[in-house]
Amino acid sequence: MEQEQLTLYKLMILYLIEKVDFPLSNSQISEFILDKGYTNYFTVQRAFHELEEENMLRVKQIRNMSHYALSDEGSEAIEMFEYQIPNSIKEDIAQFLKEKEEGTLTRKIGYFIVKNLLTNFITKPDFIAYHYKYKDCLPLKICRRFYKIPIYGWTFRDKKAYKENEPYFEGFIFEKFVL
Which of 36, 159, 165, 170 has its CA 20 to 30 A from that of 58? Predict the structure, then answer.
């Protein structure tokens, strides 16, 4: 492999990291490069390794995964050599980040809808099982009041929690203890 190609892959990694305001994992960056067919897995890992050795990246371990942010040297390098990245690659990176952002937003909206029980007016469930610690949350109160849906407290692991929450629920789901 030519050193010039490896340099391009290193610049792509730096550019990708520069375009976000949070650390990216090795797998997130590799996904872009590999899915676009720019190079193979081993070359990407070699580029990461060299960037780390050259102190271009700051590495942070999050849940046993390496996440990368630019070091001062990495910021200077991408500022000086960004012009060497073809515009077509920059456009691919912009598209990739846009798709990731839209996917994250869609997941966040979906999670919000489910968490706040906003589909119950459509689904009309027979009951709702909700963690007993969140018995005072507004969506649960709305479902109880307007839809007259029985609420079952769940994940009771001891008698004390059961006794304290008995008045709040119409039914109970236990885990690992007997009354």
Answer: 36
- What is the distance between the alpha carbons of residues 107 and 73, in angstroms, rounded to a whole number? 35
Beta bridge partners of 45: none
Cα Dmax for the chain: 72
From the CB of residue 153, how many other CB atoms can be counted at a distance below 10 Å?
A: 23
Q: Is 161 helix (H, G, I), strand (E, B) or coil?
A: helix
Nearest to 120, CA basis, from 152, 91, 84, 147: 147
Give the list of residues 6+ apart from residue 163 with CB closer than 8 angstroms, or none.
none
- The alpha carbons of the chain give a radius of gyration, in whole angstroms, of 25
Burial 51-72 (b: 16+ CB within 10 A, else e): beeeebbbeeeeeeebbbbbbe
- Interacting residues of 66 by C-beta distance below 8 A, sequence separation 6+: 25, 26, 59, 60
71 alpha-carbon distance from chain centroid: 23
Q: What is the per-residue pLDDT across 13-48, written as a single tens digit (0 to 9) for each? A: 999 999 988 778 888 899 999 999 999 999 999 999
**Pairwise CA distance, residues 29 & 45, whole Å:** 10
| pLDDT tens-digit series, residues 149-172 | 888 888 777 888 888 888 888 888
Give phi and psi for 125, each to the nearest 5.
-70, 160
